[in-house]
Amino acid sequence: MTENNIRIVVSGPRGKMGREAVHMITRTDHFQLVGAIDHKYDGKLLSDLEEFPDVDVPIFTDSDLCFSSTKPDVLVDFTNPEAGMRLAASALNNGIRPVIGTSGFTEESVHHFQKIAEEKRIGMIIAPNFAIGAVLLMKFSQMAARYFPDVEIIEQHHDKKLDAPSGTAIKTAEMIRTVRGDKQQGHPSEKELLTGARGAELSGMRIHSVRLPGLIAHQQVIFGGEGELLSLRHDSMNRSSFMTGVRLAVETVMTLDTLVYGLENILE
Ligand code: NAP
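A: This is the predicted complex of the input protein with NAP.
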């Protein structure tokens, strides 16, 4: 360990994403995992849990106590929206930079944290999707929407996912909206025979959410034009696909003094 190590606390370490984050951090030379926040196992070590036999860092249920005891530079959060918002606020109050992977942060909450991060001059990153390929899909979709303003999004996830549509689908639609604005799509008099048949709606774009066991995280963006279709698709095959982005976010948040929303805003 050198003095230049970035000291990191992970919240939600037993979860599917938190577990990957713990392993990525312990395998990265210039990162140092110094603690974990969970709502269980207070006072135990991660190595007391089956998943992490070699990771001797303390688990806290009280975030303030965790931050004052372990003095991290960065909090990496993969919990749920309620816990994530509480932990992000606690991190900022303690001068610690939050890297938030938890999805379901509303537009209002992003603005709220933007204000606090700016006031305190502390870096923060909220990224609904850390997979570099998914972020490129969003960028390519924004590019294509200039020429193909009629678009529908189909996102597919495992059936344990709590929020719908996915943060990535919402973010994709928001990015497309910046180039094409609001647009009524489909027949002006179309009528749903079953509620929800046309999916959720954001500025006229339809978003369809599929939830099935066997899926991880997948998104297709379909553009329709005169006599042609363009389909863009990204598939995360496993959760390690998100870790390149988490690593980049942890490195980048150290250089920020404000909030950045979306990994696309830190990719060159
Ligand atoms: P998960 O497997 O359910 O993990 C969540 C973990 O958080 C669980 O271990 C849970 O413990 C724990 N937890 C719940 N409340 C807590 C609290 N108050 N304090 C600390 N820990 C708490 O979910 P996941 O699949 O890892 O996903 C986590 C989040 O990341 C979700 O919002 C998901 O949508 C998002 N996600 C983001 C990306 C991205 O690229 N940004 C990618 C995939 C997923 P219990 O099980 O005991 O409740």
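The helical segments are 16-27, 63-70, 81-93, 107-120, 132-145, 167-180, 243-253. The first strand starts at residue 6 and ends at 11.
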